[in-house]
Amino acid sequence: PATVESVANFGFRNVKTLRKVVFQEGLKVLGTSAFNGCSALTEIQLPNSLESIGPFAFSDNKFETLILGENVQSLDDWAFAFVDPLKHLVVEGKDLAIPSFFCMSNLETLYLGNGVTTVDGFGYMTSLQHVVLGENVSLSDWAFAGLTNTTFYAVPGTQGYAAAQALVAQLGAQNTLKDYAPLAVDAYASQDTVTERTKVTAAAVGGAGTLEYRFVTVDANGQETELQAYSAVNTVEVPVGETPVTVRAYVRDVTMLEVSGQTVLTLGGSASAFAITKQPENVTAYPNQNAVFT
To answer: Does the structure show a pLDDT above 90 at 285?
Structure first.
């Protein structure tokens, strides 16, 4: 429930039957070894309210993707120790200094948002293939030492881009730097008039690597019903009745960063195509937030 503000040290340690955990907004602290030894845990959803994660919080878990929101201010050096299945880590952060992490042997993608200020270490994590660096980040000499065949992404003209340039020059030619634009998406009906079967298209800009799309309808209580699971297809056909239908489109890139946009379909109504101009400067679409366009 929303009244849970912290998980105590060793709170769920060695609960071998725990498979999925979803926290509501309000959680602020995960204590030492909070989920250590939960060897069946394959999915955990943490709220934006989370501020701190203690050592060994997820050791011996089985989830492959972890998303940390924009209020995380403190991560212990050993916060992700021995989470071997972890492949995708998204960290938005709030004035967050990332320490030298240990024992993350299979991490493939890393997204560091604009709230991350310094990075000390993902050194010698040679499994890393794609790394997005936030606009305000600075890197220690150890930050990504020993990496090979890694593609780095950063927004041109930012401190993060300058840090990435210096890093790639230091690491050598096998590593590359690509210009990055914030991931954003909007949904629109891709036909002139809304009918009983109306096509909705997701138009996305920015991001890193290949994009995938997911579509849901949203009821009056905010509950989602899936129309299409994540795939390369960015158009879905939506049934429309007498009641207006809210359709939400999600898009994620290779780092598993996810953003969404939505449209409302009214039977017989106009459905002009939405035209993207650009994502506004200095505005970033964060995970689980609607994109903003001009």
So the answer is: no
Kindly provide the b/e burial profile for residues 157-175, where b requires at least 16 CB atoms within 10 angstroms of the residue's own CB: ebbbbebbeebbeebeeeb
For the beta carbon of residue 243, count every other beta carbon within 10 angstroms: 9
Pair of tokens at residue 262? 């939505």
Question: What average pLDDT does range 84-95 have in this prediction?
Answer: 96
Rounded Cα distance, 197 and 66, in Å: 36
- Can you give the pLDDT at residue 271? 58
Taking alpha carbons only, the member of 149, 274, 120 closest to residue 205 is: 274
* DSSP letters spanning the chain: -TT--EE-TTTTTT-TT--EEEPPTT--EE-TTTTTT-TT--EEE--TT--EE-TTTTTT---SEEEE-TT--EE-TTTTTT-TT--EEEE--SSEEEEE----TT--EEEE-TTEEEEEE-TT-TT--EEE--TT-EE-TTTTTT--S-EEEE-TTSHHHHHHHHHHHHH-TTSEEEE----EEEEEE-SSB--SEEEEEEEEE--SS--EEEEEEE-TTS-EEEEEEEES--EEEEE--SS-EEEEEEEE-TT--EEEEEEEE-TT-B-PPP----PPTT--PPTTSB----
Q: Which pTM value belongs to this model? A: 0.88
Q: Give the model confidence (pLDDT) of 171-216 as tens digits.
A: 987 899 999 999 999 999 998 899 999 999 999 999 999 999 999 9
